[in-house]
Amino acid sequence: MRIVLISTPIGFLGSGKGGGVELTLNSLVSGLISLGHSVDVVAPKKSKLHEINVKAKLHYVEGEDQISWQHQNYYSPVSIPDNSLLAGMLEKGLDIAKHADVLLNMSYDWLPIWMTINLDIPIAHIISMGSESLVIRNLISKVYAKYPKNFAFHSQMQAKDYPFIKEPTIIGNGFNLDNYIFQDSVQGPLAWVGRVAPEKGLEDAVYVANKLGEKLKVWGFIEDETYASKIEKSFPKGAIDWKGFLPTDKLQEELGKCRGLLNTPKWNEAYGNVIVEALACGVPVVAYKRGGPSEIIQHGHTGYLSKPDDKETLLYYANIIQKINRKNCREWVEKNASADIFANKVVNWLNKVIIEYK
Ligand code: UDP
């Protein structure tokens, strides 16, 4: 199959601005290539693919980023800037797709989804977020009525945000497990990993670490500086050990030294890449039972799930995290979330989409 992949219109690949989509895209590309498919990636200028993806063709586009939907009002209209990166990526993608089997869109935005009803080329959409915009939700509903196969979701809980989708296609996610080394660090610190933005609830994780008299190690791109400094000010000085945004190889090395990961989403987390990355290093996870994390973590086996927003229960579980056998964590990822497993699910789905157009 020849697949043309459209990247996120928020930040170049490797910047961290695109959140989990950046890693998901890289894992998918390597999984597809290892299954023998050919992949063209259309992405913002300065984007870099992981070294393993040398066989993929990268096409650069310059332009203005979209505004992330999770940071707009739910009822906001669509806005497309002059010299739009998204429009530019779609133009380039459409041109290359003349010689391809399918266009695979990974941007959560209105324009590519709207194009579905006006295109003869098969176009499939990996929906990377829960319902964060009314206008997009309603558009998905309209397009779904005509093209019911063209949407895939990372988790059942995420898909529930789109209740009109009957029997949603769930593709989960998967990663190159050679990039993650198992470490048996039962004595290490507690970690938190993610974009530093309100929907990620960092403050609840700092609360827990602080109650335990520990510094919380925090890795990730600081998307919202005001939010970050507000959290910092509301806890004693030095409660957070800011570690910055690291590439995967460095991140996993540091993360593997931790005894547990705290994951505290305040929104319907579509999947939660960082949870699986932690598990792949043997790090158990304590998370709120909300969105993807509630489907990934096996309570009592690979981590613990606390009632959403219940900091005291989170604290209770963080305190007993060493009870989890770290080998369970790695094992779960190997059986459920490798790049090949993920790519196979995507290929099965894309085949169904392509057949619709014949
Ligand atoms: N990440 C990273 N380096 C860091 C911290 C985070 O590469 O120092 C990546 C991580 O690998 C993950 C992404 O940031 O893929 C966050 O994705 P997640 O699905 O957890 O949340 P999202 O940002 O998509 O809401």
- Quickly count the helices: 13
What ranges have pLDDT less than 50 throughout 5 or more consecutive residues? none
Corresponding CATH superfamily of the largest domain: Glycogen Phosphorylase B
| SS class | alpha/beta
Examine the secondary-structure arrangement and name the CATH architecture of the largest domain. Answer: 3-Layer(aba) Sandwich
SSE order, as H and E? EHEEHEHEHEHEEHEHEHEHEHEHHH
Bound molecules: uridine-5'-diphosphate
Radius of gyration based on Cα positions? 20 Å
Explained architecture:
The protein has helices at 20-34, 85-97, 110-115, 134-146, 156-159, 202-211, 225-233, 248-255, 273-280, 293-296, 311-319, 326-336, 339-356; strands at residues 2-6, 38-44, 57-61, 102-105, 123-127, 151-153, 169-170, 190-193, 216-219, 240-244, 260-263, 285-288, 303-306. The chain is globular and about 60 Å long. The two termini are 15 Å apart. Helix content is 36%, strand content 16%. It is α/β, with parallel strands linked by helices and 358 residues long.
